[in-house]
Amino acid sequence: MSDTLDCRICGGTLHEFFDFGRQPLADAFVDPNHPGQEYFHRLAVAQCGSCTMVQLLEDVPREHMFRTDYPYLSSGSSAMQDHFRATAGHFLDHELRDPDSFVVEFGSNDGIMLDTVARAGRRHLGVEPCAGVAEAAAAKGIRVRNAFFEESTAAEILAAEGRAKVIYAANTFSHISYVDSVFRGVDILLDDDGVFVFEDPYMGDIVERTSFDQIYDEHFYFFTVRSVQNMAAFYGFELVDVEHLPVHGGEIRYTLARPGSRTPSPEVARFLDREKILRLAERPTLESFATNIDLLRDGLRTLLVRCRAEGRSVVGYGATAKSATLTNYCGIGPDLVSFIADNTPAKQGTLSPGSHIPVRSPEAFADPYPDYALLFAWNHAEEIMRKEAEFKRRGGRWILYVPELHIV
Ligand code: SAM
Ligand code: TMP
Ligand code: ZN
Fold this sequence. Notes:
The protein is an alpha/beta fold. It has 14 helices and 17 strands. Strand 10 and strand 11 form a beta hairpin. Helix 5 packs parallel to helix 6. The protein is globular. Residues 66, 70, 72, 74, 106-107, 109, 112, 127-130, 133, 148-149, 170-172, 175-176 line the site of S-adenosylmethionine (SAM). InterPro entries: Methyltransf_Zn-bd_dom_put, Methyltransf_Zn-bd_dom_put_sf, MeTrfase_14, SAM-dependent_MTases_sf.
């Protein structure tokens, strides 16, 4: 444990509570024909002693993570399509009722949320730095700006399109270490009575379920209601609503507004009380989370080594970014998990970052079925187990490690 750098939000002292050592970029899949040099960085997490924000100690240059060929496609999950259709419907019914209202989404990826907004004929703009996924959205008729959202982008959008009623980001704001520039951008672009809404993995769920694989280069901040309330106040906004979401293993959707412009929902106080009771921001809680990470690593490794010793085949399912931390921290390579099945075209035929497990199409999973499938995409368990029902019917078993190690 070391107390070194300053908090990226408030300048307070950071207290490190876990160090995963050198880790690869979680979405940098390796081309086996041109392996090149993989980029490694030190993955360590800390909490601020003042504003309580949990954050990485080192940030990776954004151009290394969010490249033209960024492989993650949001629309690969039908459950997430339903989630974002409902999100867009909520905005259309509540915040975007004026036919001239304007919504900006940063991290719009392949347009999974804005698709519904565009079909409803509302003014919208996606801001997405990765050209490949931005083009996929544009091909659906969605307006996208190929850029990083920050102060200068917001100023350009304001000049061209006017102010926005809603600024939205899903699984993106927590990826951005430079929140000061983003908040200045939101301040420039947001209407006086507009809302800035973002949803990201919830630190409360990560601690409760030991889902430590949520910690990787792209996830820079791990929000709680308390730390987001502090952050909002620090940058001149007010946290007016929170909603716990079941997606991606537990997220919270935070709604920020200009101070005094909206009546805060009682949910904010309710969550703050709950976090206090759970002692979520306290050192002993984070220390026991750290202990649980190593217990889970040891348990999973023992199980996989036993499978190998007994001659059982194990295949991974879902070449998630999360699985980079899991496989590299637990020492899981192709000797323990022979390949990973994944439906993302850009990941197929590659090797997983650092651990170099081959990634293949879901068709390979059935050819023939393995004895065990280690579900790296545990957040999509229902959808994947439904699709792959035949695997269980034929005697296959799923290995899950969230919320604890178990076989079903
Ligand atoms: N919103 C989608 C979802 O929830 O499925 C995509 C989430 S994906 C994990 C994160 C996205 O944020 C990537 O498409 C990435 O290119 C984008 N991103 C990262 N930094 C950004 C920034 N400063 N401005 C806009 N988008 C950014
Ligand atoms: P995520 O947990 O970051 O959303 O990543 C999920 C990964 O799992 C992504 O690479 C796509 C893959 N996947 C499948 O292969 N089949 C599926 O049915 C689903 C939902 C996801
Ligand atoms: Zn701080």
